[in-house]
Amino acid sequence: MRLLRSSDASELTAAYVRNRAYLSRWEPVRSDEYYTQAWQAADIANRLVATDAGEGYPFGLFAGDTLVGRFNVAGIVRGPFQSAGLGYWVDSKYSGRGLASAAAQVIVETVRDEIGLHRIEASTLLHNVGSQRVLTKAGFRQIGMAPRYLQIAGKWQDHNLYQVLLHD
Hints:
Aminopeptidase, about 35% strand, globular
């Protein structure tokens, strides 16, 4: 796992195209433009600007040269909050192998040790048991349920909320 680079746009696009149907039940409705290299290149560029500002970190999970997952630490708030959100997915061909759990654990360590935050939060659809296991294995604890929290697959859906505290 490493920070995405501008040169990863082609590989990221291929991963999104390859997983479009698989991810559609877990993500917002995406326009066709989202699945183009131009859109992904612009998104990586914007996220790297956020990285330079200390506001977010886009990580790619790779098997050799093939991108097989994406983990975004985003919405970093400093001051008394010292918190960020985590979003992620793993390629359908690689799911169920423990890669997401291992990557989420690395993210938790990175956010604590290198980025210096106090907490990181994540949410899952109520029926996304696999993602809930990923978070639990990485040290997240459920802190509640938010009704109609995010618009996923074209409708407002309830989400379980999780956090991990990184410092006492």
